[in-house]
């Protein structure tokens, strides 16, 4: 395969741009294909939300070096940026560097990837064939050959459903409910003095609960309910004061206080069986036989990867988590719930198709608690491997802040302990 063919990066988010910066380090040609109109387009959809990780964990070293050559100054490493600030103060300047700008195409939606002249079944000479990436740009269909693929497209556009069985039983419902973290303060008319239920146990759900509680301070008739599948909300509060990311721990503590004060009503365990939408009301019924009627429904139950455009690529995912099989034991919440994942790189992210990788939040499949700095380490290692720098690919250059939660279940024949 010609080394002159570019590495195609899918997605111009933080991890995709970090991959590009590392490719620049190795002088390897690349092309970024971004579905949105601008850099960080998914992040801008929740741009008003403040990250719980400070700037220190949100920038990539290779990208920093490129930016500083152009006179860029790193934001205060201890400050917590919003999503909008992350884009405007870091991703946008990075995307405007000539070496990045000249190799990025926006409004480019990847629809399929294959091997040149070979479908998934054909093995003969497969590794010598380049990849072919087919993408839509407006009304036109385009294709580009690639020496390697780094899929950093994320999972933001593919939210998990509220139903306990994991299916969107009603496609129309998906368009009606809020699957993001609503900008409650910017659009109070939607939620003020109404009964809103939040479904989910992750940080997005906690943020939504906090925003609604703040609205209730001004509009006292606002009612907030929280639906959880688990028996108790305790584990959703996380490590609190034991969390090495102070803001992440404080979020759990704040929501715990809202529950204790009765500001947030907890419905648990509550496995959503049916949702009926009539007029302006939602009636939610659980498998346990409970029923609640609300005005607004926020579904913050996480997201899942979209593999639809990878049909002709030989990829392997764990049957439970939908990450690579090697990564799954480190992040499967059924095996541990500490949220602290040991650093990993190219070796754990390999797929059967040589030089094809999924990186960033999509690499986690359905597992939660992904940090940008994890994605940065992933692509550093992946690019080193693509460049033939085996030693750098195998090195571990990352220490993640622990969540302060340490609960593990036994894993037969494996020595896996996220708590050290």
TrEMBL record:
UniProt keyword Zinc present: no
Gene3D superfamilies attached to this UniProt entry: FAD/NAD(P)-binding domain
UniProt key word Cell inner membrane: no
Keyword line: Oxidoreductase
GO molecular function terms attached to this record: flavin adenine dinucleotide binding; monooxygenase activity
Bilayer-crossing regions: none
UniProt name for this protein: NAD(P)-binding domain-containing protein
Originating species: Oceanobacillus jordanicus
